[in-house]
Design brief:
Layout (H helix, E strand, L loop, with lengths): L8 E4 L3 E7 L14 E7 L1 H11 L4 E8 L2 H12 L7 E4 L6 E6 L5 E6 L11 H8 L2 E4 L4 H13 L3 E6 L15 E5 H7 L3 H9 L5 E5 L5 E4 L5 E4 L12 H15 L3 H15 L12 H15 L1
Parallel strand pairs: 1-4, 1-8, 2-6, 4-5, 8-9, 9-10, 10-11
Antiparallel strand pairs: 2-3, 6-7, 11-12, 12-13
Helix pairs in contact: 1-7, 5-6, 7-8
Bound molecules: adenosine-5'-triphosphate and magnesium ion (MG).
The site of adenosine-5'-triphosphate has 24 residues, from helix 7 and helix 8.
Length: 306
Amino acid sequence: MPDTINPQVIGFGQCCLDILGQTSSYPELDQKAELNSLLVQGGGPVGTALVTLSRLGVPVTMVGAVGDDEFGRQIREGLLNEGVDCTYLAQSSGASSQVAFISVDDDGHRNIFWHRGTASPVVPKSFQAILSNSIRILHLDGLHLEATIAAAEMARSLDVITVLDAGTLRPGMERLLPLIDHLVVSEKFARQTNDDLEVALKQLADYGAQAITITLGKSGSLSRSTDGQTFSQPAFKVDAIDTTGCGDVFHGGYIFGLLQGWPLPQTVRFASACAALKTRALGGRTAIPALQEVENYLRDQTNEST
Ligand SMILES: Nc1ncnc2c1ncn2[C@@H]1O[C@H](COP(=O)(O)OP(=O)(O)OP(=O)(O)O)[C@@H](O)[C@H]1O
Ligand SMILES: [Mg+2]
């Protein structure tokens, strides 16, 4: 990234290497299935959200860790090729990088087997200075809990907005949630809170976030704003090739909306469009749209419904 461009968003958390295979048949136990296509590409919740923002034209920085292995080299290269600043992406000596095996069926459904690797992100000594510079939003995924809490606390002390992508409710997360301004969680996370999603929204709101959204795959999303109003955003209808990374891309689109100062419904609609467009090709990142594509898509959708 050129020195003159200051990042607006910093991501702290996971970046991984996805090994994706498209298959028309899932094997029984002890059987085999041939893959129709194979793709190796960077992934991970924070990594792919930052790539989304970068494609939308927002300067971003990744803070995380990879191992000193071949996967780590490819993860870094994938981020750099997308214009993500990797100055604070540490390479941990002797450690392994996060990796995922992903199978995708003919309807775009994905199954993920992943290993977190042994490289763990740590908050860099200069983090406060980086946040003080030009950062407006800190995006987190919470897997490495203690470091994530430390990063969120620092953001809070500097009035940097915090966004959390929470996929699984893990022990200790109740210490992180009060430090979050925008909580955008998976259906799994919400149901671990309460199986009634309206109740889950209310319980999560009690931690103090300004806005909470539960993403529900092809059923869209359910949100609650500061004033306690709830609303649904249907998913856009697409013939999905691959839904890998839909949640990550949704977060990137959501953060873009926050940067514009849009109302929550507009932000969530934009995020949904980014995620829907993402499904057009194999890979979490392949079909992430540029800003103009999202704008055209949303305009077409509006015209169709009028
Ligand atoms: N089949 C689909 N068609 C259209 N939009 C989709 C589809 N699947 C997901 N989306 C969009 O992406 C958003 C996020 O998807 P989802 O809820 O599956 O994320 P997630 O559970 O966090 O999964 P992951 O992070 O692994 O992608 C949904 O709210 C929806 O807007
Ligand atoms: Mg997710």
